[in-house]
Amino acid sequence: MAHKQLPPKLSPLTVGTGQTLYEQVADRIQSLIREGTLAPGDRLPSVRKLKQQLSVSMSTVLEAYRLLEDRGIITARPQSGYYVKATALALPNEPSQSTPPPQVRPVDISLMLQLLRMGQSPKIIQLGAAVPGVENFPVNTLNRLMGQVMRADPIATHSYSTVPGCEPLRREVAKRMLNAGCSVAPDHVIATAGATEAYYLALRTVTQAGDTVVIESPSYYAVLEAMNSLGLNALELPTHPREGISLSALQSALENQSVAACFLVSNFSNPIGSCMDDGKKKAIVDLLNQYDVPLIEDDVYGDLNFEGDRPKAIKAFDTQGRVIYCSSVSKTLSPGFRVGWCIAGRYQQQVEHMKVVVSHMTATAPQLAVAAFFANGGYDRHLRSLCRTYQQQMNRMLQAILDYFPPETRVTRPDGGHILWVDITGGFDALELFESAIQHNISIAPGPMFSASNGYQNCFRLNTGLPWSEDINQAMKTLGSLAKKQLARKVLADPL
To answer: 352 and 443: one domain?
Structure first.
């Protein structure tokens, strides 16, 4: 996105104010952000351009930008420039740590299936499904690469591959795992049909029907579906929208329950967007090693960080092969390719056997096309652009929530991914909003979908992965209006 220019007629910087020139420059830019001239995610003018506009030295501009960084208002991106941070928005409060019921329970997905069926019409604006817009992806490049790999080796692309997958893909995934802090060999990688198959194979490997699996709360509903199909019980643990699962609750569960496995979405989790720090990730691995419990890690959002370096995977701290790592390109490159992978550690042989039972192999041509995209350097360039896009789209939706939703609204502020978790107090009912919104051809994902016990009645998930448009803006305006009307009816209905 082209950066916005400062207004052409600025009053000159003055002396004798008790401020240095760089402080005046910083304050001037901060006021433009506060007034909305520069929005979160916007690129600031280059150092050279601002020097010319304000007739100051380059060192003055650099000091001003460093001061704004220290204030937490802007951020520097290598080889790209300075950008307004998302936290520059005046946002609603964040939700607090969840408090799920402490009991082990079977996974009930009957409501989930009903809601999914109701929201499948092509006319509906999908604000609930965590599906990125295809417009965000390099479709033409991927199509060209698919054609190239099929022409280069037509026999191989129409034949059975090996069970673990094509060697070029496994080699490129192993290279990319270095960014997540992991050192793995290509032979340790198993290609799967997306991350969904990866964690399904993992669950089948380390559990039996009737076992208990520790999960975050709220938790990704597709994992609940997999657990239900395998006859597994869930133990939901308190989870903070920034810091992730409660370590003390995890330790208590391991001490007092018979736990077969733990399942976590490690970075920018679905649905609440939490991202644990390295210390917590290591502490989780240490705890699971102590109690000899495997961890299934879903890191499908790990490459989608808005600022700084890619966060490490929990797998990076695994010294005993107890973490089964799962990921894919479904959120970053192509949902339709169904290319994912599993790094199973000590469970590799069992997972490969389970792969034979379930699907035998992953389609060859998409694997080779993804490998080619990784190898030519296009993926890193694409990620830089995609993360900026996701951040801008998320900021627009956060602003829409601020503009249109009731004051009782609380919303998460993830540092990556494309999902928001909305919590509205005051007797709000997300299922009622879902039913009302469907009548306006808008879908959301109500909170009960993300709980084994159908909790989170006052919460829902929003997808920010779709390119912002006037239709989405109007849909958000409608959702806010429906939520306000619902709360107003409840106030009138409550006895004094």
So the answer is: no
Looking at 379, 407, 425, the residue that finishes a domain is 379
Q: How far apart are CA 179 and CA 302, in angstroms?
A: 10
Give the tokens for residue 29: 């830019």
Same structural domain for residues 319 and 389? Answer: no
61 Cβ neighbours under 8 A, 6+ residues apart: 22, 25, 47, 50, 51, 54
Residue 94 domain flag: no
Query: Quick one: pLDDT band at residue 160, thresholds 50, 70, 90?
Result: confident
- Which residues constitute the domain of residue 79? 21-88
Q: How many domains does the chain have?
A: 3
Is 198 part of any domain? Answer: yes
Q: Mean pLDDT throughout 406-432?
A: 94
In the numeric block, the tokens 């961890």 are attached to 295
Distance CA 316, CA 258 (A): 26
CB atoms within 10 A of CB 259: 21
Confidence of residue 458 (pLDDT cuts 50, 70, 90): very high
Strands (E) in 2-115, as ranges, are: 74-77, 81-84, 105-106
Instruction: Tell me which residue of 398, 304, 328, 352 sits closest to 201, measured CA to CA.
Output: 352
Q: Are 50 and 42 in contact (CB under 8 A)?
A: no
Is 290 strand, coil or helix?
Answer: helix
Q: Which two tokens stand for residue 81?
A: 């420039």
Looking at the domain assignment, is residue 223 inside a domain? yes
On whether the CB atoms of residues 418 and 464 are closer than 8 A, the answer is: yes
- CATH number reported for the structural domain that contains residue 451 in this entry: 3.90.1150.10
Assigned domain for 109 exists: no
pLDDT tens column, 22-62? 888 888 888 787 666 777 778 888 888 888 888 888 889 89
Lowest mean pLDDT among 6-15, 78-87, 193-202, 480-489: 6-15
Class of residue 250 by CB neighbours under 10 A (exposed 0-12, middle 13-18, buried 19+): buried
**pLDDT confidence of residue 171:** 97
Lowest mean pLDDT among 1-10, 47-56, 91-100, 367-376: 1-10
What's the rounded Cα separation, in Å, for the pair 151 and 104?
Answer: 53
Q: Give dist(CA 48, CA 411) in Å, integer.
A: 38
Q: Tell me: do 245 and 279 sit in the same domain.
A: yes
Same domain (yes/no): 164, 55? no
pTM above 0.85, yes or no: no
Radius of gyration of the chain (CA): 24
Dihedral pair phi/psi, residue 486, rounded to 5°: -65, -45
pLDDT (mean) for 199-222? 96
List b or e across 201-213, with b for residues whose CB sees 16 or more CB atoms inside 10 angstroms.
Answer: bbbbbbbeeebbb
The last residue of one of the domains, among 357, 379, 401, is 379
CB 401 within 8 A of CB 476: yes
Q: Are residues 270 and 300 in the same domain?
A: yes
